[in-house]
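Q: My labmate handed me this sequence with no annotations at all. I'd like to see what the chain might look like in three dimensions before we decide whether it's worth expressing. Could you predict it?
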Amino acid sequence: MDRLSILLKHFNPHATTFHQGAFCGVTDIYGQGGFGHAHLLRTGRLSFRDKHNQVIELAEPSLILVVRPQQHQLVATEVDAAELVCATLHFDGGASNPLTLALPDYIVQPLSELPGLSGSLDWLFAEAFGEECGRDVVLNRLFELMLIQLLRHLIATRSITSGMMAGLANPRLARSLTSMHSEPQRNWSVADLATLASMSRASFAAHFRKVVGVTPADYLTNWRISLAQKRLREGRPIALVAAEVGYESPSALARTFRRKVGRSPSEWVQQEEA
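A: Here is what I predict for the chain of 274 residues:
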């Protein structure tokens, strides 16, 4: 499976459109409920304020992507004549899954710099400002498609310089990362992963840590625990989850889970359900 599809298989995005049309005023979005947000400025002007009170002024069609739940603000006056299409985003695996954590706090980019998204964005705007039946469902799917195409763009252009996305964009590391993603149950050694990268063990370990930010062993552990969290949230028994993510017993998974998360699997599930 390719490097992006395996991520989306585990942590698939789901969009719900909540606004399409003219926008005037001040809207504070507090990032509650575990949702991220996508805002598309079709025409006019708009101010975006992030959680640190930094303001970005938008004067052309643009994308604002706040993929994790966090506070931000949108501001436009009547003179700005802003038209927006907005959606909430949530992901299989929760808000703090490896895919969302690999992205910056937010992305603000003119649509003119995203030519690979132009076809789906034209379709999205046509649906948002049209009156075809089934519009809401189509809009939701188009937002999801837009996000997938944006991830593809970020990898192809190497726009993110550290972390998992940087590793997936790196020709020497992408195969080893994708192999860990697709076969977490395998007893991967650094030597195995280095062979996939056509590098010596020492060179691979150093290059991986420089680009991704952690050692290969730590990355594999973090990936396994993220998959375990997703599957436990879905109600799967820990005995099955342990085998699926590479642990010889539920107790082995529980020990690593507590070390990484600070709680036992059962305590963590109870907190998630509260």
